[in-house]
Specification:
- The complex is a heterodimer.
- Chain A is of the alpha/beta class.
- Chain A has a single domain, classed as NAD(P)-binding Rossmann-like Domain (Rossmann fold), CATH 3.40.50.
- Chain A has helices at residues 2-11, 44-55, 73-76, 90-103, 150-175; strands spanning 16-21, 60-65, 83-84, 109-112, 125-129, 132-136.
- In chain A, α4 (90-103) links the parallel β3 (83-84) and β4.
- In chain A, α1 packs parallel to α2 (44-55).
- Chain A starts with a helix and ends with a helix.
- Chain B has a five-stranded mixed sheet with strand order 2-1-5-3-4, with no helix packed on it.
- The radius of gyration of chain B is 12 Å and the shape is globular.
- The N and C termini of chain B lie far apart (45 Å).
- In chain B, β3 and β4 (41-42) form a beta hairpin.
- Chain B has one helix at residues 20-26; strands at residues 4-7, 10-13, 34-38, 41-42, 58-63.
- Chain B is built from one helix and five strands.
- The model of chain B has no long low-confidence stretch (mean pLDDT 93).
- By secondary structure, chain B is mainly beta.
- Chain B has one domain: Beta-grasp domain (Ubiquitin-like (UB roll)).
- The chains are: A alpha/beta, B mainly beta.
- At the A-B interface, α4 and β6 of A face β3 and β5 of B.
């Protein structure tokens, strides 16, 4: 999910990305994430940096190979204008939302919830409350036979990136 | 007329000392991971039992689903 979002933002010419991930590439990621066979076993942040640089060599990248927790989020993303959540487990999503909103009611947090399966385009929505945005169908869990698959994952990833651009454009217009 | 609160757009009867946990039970929200905001303020999971919902409050409950 995050790899797709990062690549889309890199293609649009965004100035800087701060990326954090603890995982390494595995075969089960290839059905939806922006890695290839040669990158299996490689830290995802390292593989992603390589893939982004092949598209946009000018972007500033700050890659962190670590697991986010309530104690490291604020410092890692201190310079970020917008936070985009692309974590796997619901528990981690909740941890990030609680940590972010506790200290920040201004900088936008764009989350995803409910991306598994296929079809049902009309169920995917984008909701907002204050600086919290959530995109997805809010109910599709990954269960046996209903894995997260590229099209639906990439639709939600694209909506997250799209919203990010909209917020940044408005931010710049307001500043001008 | 009975005092009410709004949960995800639905009008629900408000009760004296009603907690976030009471509201979840009332609405049959059993999903383990939720985002709950009361009048725009996020209520952390650890505070569901201790947070009282004021009369007339606007409550938002969203399911957090794994997958990334």
């Amino acid at each position: 999910m995050g790899s797709n979002i990062a690549l889309m933002l890199a293609r649009t010419g965004i100035g800087k990305l701060i990326v954090a991930d603890f995982d390494t590439g595995s075969v089960s990621n290839l059905n939806r994430q922006a890695y290839d066979l040669s990158q299996l076993g490689m830290p995802k942040v390292q593989a992603l940096e390589h893939n982004i640089r092949r598209v946009n060599p000018f972007i500033k990248l700050q890659m962190h190979e670590l697991r986010l927790n309530p104690d490291n989020i604020a410092s890692i993303f201190a310079d970020a204008d917008i936070m985009i959540e692309a974590l796997d487990k619901a528990e981690e999503k909740q941890m990030l939302i609680e940590t972010w909103l506790k200290s920040d009611q201004v900088r936008p947090l764009i989350c995803a919830s409910g991306i598994a399966g296929y079809g049902r385009n009309e169920d995917i929505k984008s909701i907002r409350d204050g600086n919290l945005f959530i995109i997805g169908d809010m109910h599709s869990e990954p269960v046996e036979g209903i894995a997260p698959m590229a099209p639906r994952v990439m639709i939600v990833a694209a909506m997250q990136a799209n919203l990010c651009l909209e917020i940044l454009a408005k931010h710049n217009k307001d500043k001008a | 007329m009975k005092p009410k609160i709004t949960i995800n757009g639905n009008k629900v009867d408000w009760q004296e000392r009603m907690t976030v946990r009471d509201a979840l039970k009332l609405m049959n929200y059993t999903f383990p991971m939720l985002v709950i905001k009361v009048n725009g303020k996020l209520i952390p999971k650890s505070d569901y039992d201790s947070t009282h919902i004021p009369v007339g409050a606007d409550v938002m409950v969203i399911h957090l689903i794994s997958g990334g």
